[in-house]
Amino acid sequence: MTRFRQVLAVPGMTPLLGISLLARAAITADVMALTMYVVLALDMSYAAAGAVAAALTAGIALGGPLLGRMIDRRGLRTVLMATVVPQIVFWLTVPVLPYVILLGASFAAGLLMVPVQAVTRQAIAAMTTAGQRRAAFTLESVAGELSYMVGPAVVILCAAKVSPGVVAWGVGAVIAVGGAGIALLNPPLRAEDEADGDAAGRPRRREWLGARMVAVLTMGFGATMLLSGVDLAIVATLQEAGQVSWAAVVVAVFGVTSVVGGLVYGALPRPMPTWLLLGLLGLVTIPAGLAHDWPWLCAAVIGAGLLTAPTLSTVSDVVSRLTPASVRGEATGLQSSALSAGFALGSPVAGAAIDASVPAGGFAAAGLAGLLAALAGYLLSRRSPAAATSPSSSSRALQPCDAVAPAP
């Protein structure tokens, strides 16, 4: 635990992670809040709710790199205020918007979603040393797991007790407070030795978005595609067994084991390659389809849970190491887009496999997606030339580390 104590002792790190956790819990729950509103308040189908959720997700995926590029050019506070205000307007008006307008407004809200995750990752890369970074990104991944466990559950509980419109207001308020809190905290996005990163000009995209970066983004996409598919496969398996009410318990076990796995991995003296972690995650996911009731399913997802946070934290670590300081916002935006796209695609792919076979097919499809992404990442990394330090990037940002074997 010494590594984690050192990270939390970094000035500003603890409040950053705390505010980020609060805001991410709300952002994680925004799709559920809109789903509950469309289904309960508008009395429309789940397909209609899914269209609104898809519009929001598509906006987030497209907006990530754009907002990241704006942060690189205009600064953190400018972008945060430019996104907090639209979020306030959107969530306040959700209860009065007709469905068709809500559909378009959801896309716009996603496009201008407060970039909490990307900003947190940028700040971690700037505030920590190379030796601290893996433990710091592990804590960030653990915070993501906690937000995933808490956010949607709170929204579902509140929607059953109060108006879904009020729940939407609450989600929007927390997102806005989180964005404003990070703006007030104003964490550094570049280290002291990176402060003059713009002096030599902004590097061209092809100088840093090479095969190694594409490899790690591909593996991030594959990891979240796997996780999204597993969620659906859990529900399908328990629905077939007549035990769907136990799905929350299985998901909780998955989340808790991910937190444990992340903490253990962050304390290890040396990291593991991203492709290996993702490949193992895919391998242990496939056999989970052999479980047919909730106690066995709880046991079956432990292996995948233990590898989830380590895989996601390693993706963040490698992205930070391969990115010059002056384009770190755009790179972390691309990372967020890749993760969002994986989440959006994972459920339909797993659903198609379940419809064509049995619930176990969902686990198989999710696991294979992870394996294919790991293989693609490995091959891309092996084919890429060694990273060279360019004049426009700091030596700190481009250490000899890639998607195959991250530096300790």
From TrEMBL:
The keyword Hydrolase does not apply. Keywords: Membrane, Transmembrane, Transmembrane helix. InterPro entries: MFS (IPR011701), MFS_trans_sf (IPR036259). The chain crosses the membrane at residues 46-68, 99-116, 166-185, 214-238, 244-265, 272-288, 360-380. Residues 385-400 have a biased composition (Low complexity). Residues 385-408 are annotated as: Disordered. SUPFAM superfamilies: MFS general substrate transporter. It comes from the Bacteria. Gene3D superfamilies: MFS general substrate transporter like domains (1.20.1250.20). GO terms for molecular function: transmembrane transporter activity. It holds the Pfam family MFS_1. This is MFS transporter. It comes from Streptosporangium roseum (strain ATCC 12428 / DSM 43021 / JCM 3005 / KCTC 9067 / NCIMB 10171 / NRRL 2505 / NI 9100).
